[in-house]
Design goal:
- With 267 residues, the protein is an alpha/beta fold.
- It is 38% helix and 23% strand.
- A seven-stranded mixed sheet has the order 3-2-1-4-5-7-6.
- Strand 4, helix 5 and strand 5 form a beta-alpha-beta unit.
- Helix 1 packs across helix 4, helix 5 packs across helix 8 and helix 6 packs antiparallel against helix 11.
- The two termini are 31 Å apart.
- The N terminus is likely disordered.
Amino acid sequence: MRFAAGLYQGTAGYYDRYRLPYPETMIADLACLTAPSGHGRLLDLACGTGQLTFPLLPWFAEAWAVDREAAMVDVVRAKAAAAGADRVRPLAVDAETLRAPPGHFELAVIGNAFHRLNRDVTADLVFGWLKPGGCLALCWSDGPWPGEADWQRALADVVERWRQKLGAGDRVPAGWNLPRRRRPDHEVLAAAGFGTAVRREYAAGHRWSLPELAGFVRATAVLPASVRGDQAAAFDADLAASLGRFGESGVFTQTVSFACDLARKPC
């Protein structure tokens, strides 16, 4: 099941266009390892644009797509309507305040967001919402700036320079990852009752154009439109000047790293 970037218009289409899709091998592995019954429910917490909801939907009778950002829920709602996917239930609510019956889901997924949630509360809640033997998958992916290529370093420099210029340095607080280093995710999951979490890693090649890189930055919480304000054109010009000499024929290539930490609720 595929969804083209141009399938719908407005804010929904804009945000979805610049999100990296999870590789098909990762989605297939998730389905194989968790063995959904085909008539159960999927829970996608902090669902964003539904990058996990829609690829996994064929294995489920219903999917709850939950995000605290109403704009992201609008993305999912628009995609579901355009595809006739009436089995998707979009919900604009915090993961920590979501209400669901015990044992309601076969699989819960969280993409690039567990660290932004109250991990202990979320893990406890998900454990209760899963059926015995159900799984929680924490899925991760890199953005374009991690890496040692010249263009990646230049991109990181531009983003950091504009974060400081626009007073947006605290949008990604210093030391944001310290709690996970001190108490890794697998310890949080174990404390909630999950079995040992198993990590699987994947890699996929990706080709960026300069407009796509600019769009990715705009679609993140680092430098969104609300932060850039009337400086959007100046930012784009700076980005083009800084990266233009590195891209071959305007293309920037990257091997993107993906990972999935899968933990099971005991039967």
